[in-house]
Each structure stands twice: as C-alpha cells, then as structure tokens.
Amino acid sequence: MAYHTLRQEYMLMPPVTRAYTTVCLLTSIAVQLDVVSPFQLYFNPLLITQKFEIWRLLTPFFFFGTFSFNFLFNMIFTYRYCRMLEEGSFRGRTADFVYMFIFGCITTVICAWFVNLLFLGHSLTTMFVYIWARRNPYVRMNFFGLLPFRAPYLPWVLVAFSVLLGNSVLVDILGIAIGHLYFFLEDVFPNQPGGRRLLATPRLLYSHILTHFVLNL
Length: 217
What we know:
Elements: H1 2-12, H2 15-32, H3 45-50, H4 69-87, H5 94-112, H6 121-135, E1 140-143, E2 147-150, H7 154-165, H8 170-188, H9 208-215
Antiparallel strand pairs: 1-2
Helix pairs in contact: 2-4, 4-6, 5-8, 6-8
Protein name: Derlin
Transmembrane segments: 20-41, 61-79, 100-133, 153-185
Organism: Daphnia similis
C-alpha cells in the first residue's frame, strides 16, 4: 500500500521536475555506493577540451553531494522550486520550461569556465528560486519560522544562510545573476518600449517527438 501511494505521488510530479530530481538522486546513490566517483563528475574545462570528457558539461548539475544535511537541504529546494515553477508560471508550457533549463545550464557552464566551480547544481537551484521569487512578489514567507519576509528576498536570505554556514556564496551569487538575466530577458525587456522577447523557445522544442518524450519521462 505504501509503495503504491509513493509511486502515485512520484508519478504526479510534473515531468521535467520528476526527471531532473530522479537523475540527481540516482547520481548521489551511485556515488554513495562507489559505482562512480565525484572525480568523474566534476566540472573541469581542461578535461573537457583536451580529453573530450564532454559528459562533464552535464554531470556537475546532477551531483549535490553524498547523503547529508546539505544534500537534503539542496534536494528539497531543488524539488520544491523546480516543481512550483513548472506547475505555476510554466503550467502547460513544458517546452518553455525545458528551454529555461537549457538557458540556465549553458549560461552557468559559460560562467563556470572562468571561475573555479566544480559542481553547478546549486547555482541552477538558486536560479529556480530567484525566478520563482520574482514572479511571486507578494507571497509571504518565513525562514525556519523565525524571519518573516516577502518572496523576492528569499534568494538573499539563502545567501545570508550560506554565510552563516561558512559556505562560499559564489554559487549563490552566480545563480542569482543568471536568474536575474533570465527574468529580465523574459519578463522585463519584452514589456519595455521597443522591447521584444529574446528568449523565444525554438520550434524544435515544440515538436511532437520532444513533447511526447518529455511528457512520458
């Protein structure tokens, strides 16, 4: 009974969120069981360009660490805000959501090429949080029941939390910057005089084959 309930809840997750969080979870399980090593997954421009280990363009987005509080915290935020975006402002727009993913990943990789970042999933999650927060400016929130604030401040609250934990805020700032770039190009600039939508989703992503693939993940 519990299995069927869990499976039903899993299948109720929107397709892109379900696919991404599943890959992230399986990646961490594989590392935990020593099937693969984090050294095979991290972002390394030299290994990508000189040894053609092109999988390193993707795998840094899938690994959030081995099972720990930090892993749990990141996975909860990834699942929560990825799902709220997909079921909220991207409802019925799977191709647009996939394109947002692609934009976020490509932009993060370009930035990571010039700074020392090994794993990029946290930045992608921060981008999700930032976009959701900007699109829901009147939502009231609180942090662990202690600090009340409105949604647009959430990314900065997370930056402060990283500082308190002694973590580098570079990944948070990068995610915020990329999220802001997407929000500006998609939500702000098209509504300005003379503005237009620069991030129009390519027709390829609207094709029947890709849509059928994504919806059945």
